[in-house]
Amino acid sequence: MLIQENVSLKPYNTFGVDVDARYFSTTSSQEDLLQVLKWANETQQKILLLNGGSNMLLVNDWDGLALKIDLKGIEIVSSTEEHVIVSVQSSEDWHGFVTWCLANDFGGIENLSLIPGKAGTAPIQNIGAYGVEIKDVLTQLTAIEMATGKKRIFTNADCQFGYRDSVFKNQLKNQYLIAEVHFRLTKKKHVLHLDYGAIRNQLAENNIENPTIQDVSQAIITIRQSKLPDPSKIGNSGSFFKNPVISALEFDALKIQFPDISGHAVDDNYKVAAGWFIEQAGWKGKRIGDAGVHEKQALVLVNYGQATGREIYDLSQAILDDVWAKFGIQLEREVNIIGSLD
């Protein structure tokens, strides 16, 4: 167990925000992880978990322990003629895991290609894209309670999944570390989800009439790369805002006022594009210092180099206030804000 002091967290968050942690440690085994958690609890350190660092905005220095998780491994747990249960450790790159599944012709997560982050943080956010969410394929996960070091199995139902939501963002926030996740994937008779976004158009452009799961993945990669910035080249955390879900009554009223607004029916409500509101409000491509809104995707806030976490946060708040004033729509941040705003 190695505990370092006064370590910059710039390399460990995809926004590239330069803040320091009072203490820092990396763990590559569950045994080492339990030792570090024991030390943190005995010394009463608050703990910041770092995995991919792709869904957080650090607004100031961390006065506690920043714990970098490095648990790796993928294995087949069980298999039938039509399905397979695959186990993936927390720190496996999410897109790397998707690629591994595609190489083995396991279907179910191809629509989640090229989403940044790690496998262990995917359930916290219930990541989703192009009509598919983690909750559709997750069977269970193993989590470690940080206060005690005890392991607990969570079923799909235990996770209380919602739109970009789970129990780990609510009642159990900051209480558990997800160590391992199990997914149930198809081995044949793959069910393709092609009706969301521009998937069919991209497949047609690729001259593909009978797509495989690999074709769907490649189409989605092409679409995402055309409009989303690479975090390794420009600091960002993917979609910064959730797409709001509004009532059918609200949607009909907005449709009268703004005929080009689009929405997807969700039960008795409508999910509408947050990016559309941000763009209509004039924020797309706007830059304040080194904090800005991406020029191709209004959902994405970026760090052009030296922006502080607080500057990015203040930009997001200005967008929230402006969209509310102009459309009466209350947007919500998808990214976790880490630190004090006082």
Give an overview in words.
The structure is a single chain. The protein has helices spanning about 30-40, 95-105, 120-125, 200-205, 215-225, 250-255, 275-280, 310-325; strands at about 5-10, 20-25, 45-50, 55-60, 60-70, 75-80, 85-90, 130, 130-135, 140-145, 150-155, 175-185, 235-240, 245, 265, 270, 285-290, 290-295, 300-305, 335-340. By secondary structure, it is of the alpha+beta class. It is built from eight helices and 20 strands. The chain is about 25% helix and about 30% strand. Strand 6 (about 75-80) and strand 7 (about 85-90) form a beta hairpin. The strands form six sheets. The chain has a five-stranded antiparallel beta sheet with strand order 6-7-12-10-11, with no helix packed on it. The protein has a four-stranded mixed beta sheet with strand order 1-2-5-3, covered by helices on one side.
Essential attributes:
342 residues; alpha+beta; five-stranded antiparallel β-sheet; four-stranded mixed β-sheet; 20 strands; 25% helix
Structural class: alpha+beta
- Average pLDDT metric: 95
Number of E strands: 20
- Largest sheet geometry: 5 strands, antiparallel
Shape call: globular
Distance between the termini: 34 Å
Write the SSE topology.
Elements: E1 4-8, E2 20-27, H1 30-42, E3 47-50, E4 56-58, E5 62-69, E6 74-79, E7 83-89, H2 94-103, H3 122-125, E8 128-129, E9 132-133, E10 138-145, E11 151-155, E12 176-186, H4 199-205, H5 213-227, E13 235-239, E14 245-247, H6 248-257, E15 263-266, E16 269-272, H7 274-280, E17 287-288, E18 291-293, E19 300-303, H8 309-327, E20 336-338
Parallel strand pairs: 2-5, 3-5, 4-20
Antiparallel strand pairs: 1-2, 6-7, 7-12, 8-9, 10-11, 10-12, 13-19, 14-16, 15-16, 17-18, 18-19
